[in-house]
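Hello,

I think I submitted the pyridoxal-5'-phosphate job twice by accident. Can you confirm which output corresponds to this input? Input:
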Amino acid sequence: MSEVFKGSFTQQEPIPEDAIEAAVAVMRHGRLHRYNTTGDEVAEAALLEQEFAALVGTKYCLSVASGGYAIATALRAVGVGHGDRVLSNAFTLAPVPGAIAAVGAVPLLVEVTEKLVIDLDDLANKLGQAKVLLLSHMRGHICDMDALMALCDAAGVTVIEDCAHTMGAAWRGTPSGRHGAVGCYSCQTYKHVNAGEGGLLVTDDPEIAARAILLSGSYMMYERHLASPPQAAFEKIKYQTPNISGRMDNLRAALLRPQLRGLPDQVGRWNERYHALEFGVRNTPGLSVIERNQNERFVGSSFQFLLRGWTAAKVNDVLSRCKRRGVELKWFGAAEPSGFTSKYDSWRYIDITPLPKSDEILAGLVDMRVPLTFSVDECSLIARIIREEVSSVFQQN
Ligand SMILES: *Cc1c(COP(=O)(O)O)cnc(C)c1O
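Support: Only one job matched these inputs. Its output is below.
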């Protein structure tokens, strides 16, 4: 009898007790809106921003309603407007081109490499066509950030980082989100901290920070922020910046503050699971693991491998065999978007130029979530199942 896995790929851990207590305290006093404070009370949202700024070593931080909102706000705050082109990864998820579309701008997609990072050669060729790069560290894979920043700096291209999958990660010791002008994070259930929904934006630029705070809907209460620029930064722009409400509330901020303190431990736990998966499937015939760069400190909250050159029928066969044994894999080569997975050619509101290199990679790219509710042993079991099924399908001819 072959082994079967019984866990759920969508079940995250419960909210920690201290976070539940903090959230209940907010509900008991009822002041959920971030600017609803009494006396010298400091709002949970303002404290969250201060603590996240300290965690990633940034001057300014703003908490908002979602990761996608953080990205759209960053784009607006650096001056992206209607009809502007914004460079971004072809290999990312729908909220990334969606945030570009939200500001009326036009995504210009860049190829992905077999390491699942942005292709720096293709980027270099396209840098002349845009003023901004929205760099998505998709599935936690971080490109050579030194090389990328050198290219973008030389071309005068502003970099915004989408760190939805890299909260807690770093490149050569610098936290992800701290290389570009702005870093954006998601606090949604499937990411690294869980408030249901939520986002964070960080920057060292006082003007970008002031614009982002005003954009998020500060009702001119910006003096109640802690991780914010001096008042003078607001004076210059406060009549010119629209209020596009998307604030975080104190309830979510209360849920997040204790989770941020626990993040380094969680990263360690994710990586134990990631390494068990990687170790278990490495050297399977027909399968390539994604080799990680030693400068990358990543968060193994998801796991990918490549079945390069496989037919769609064979990849589908692997997926359904694994599914029968309880292992839910996603495939980036599918013709139709499904679940959270979508390929760039399904974003049909964009004028898409085919990306042959990305097509080849995505056709073989298999993806899996790694919730912390899985034990390390369960990850080894999942790897055994993948290895057996990939091997059997690979051997068929
Ligand atoms: C989840 C996600 C986002 C946006 O986050 P939301 O909080 O869901 O808006 C952005 N980029 C990537 C790659 C994501 O996976």
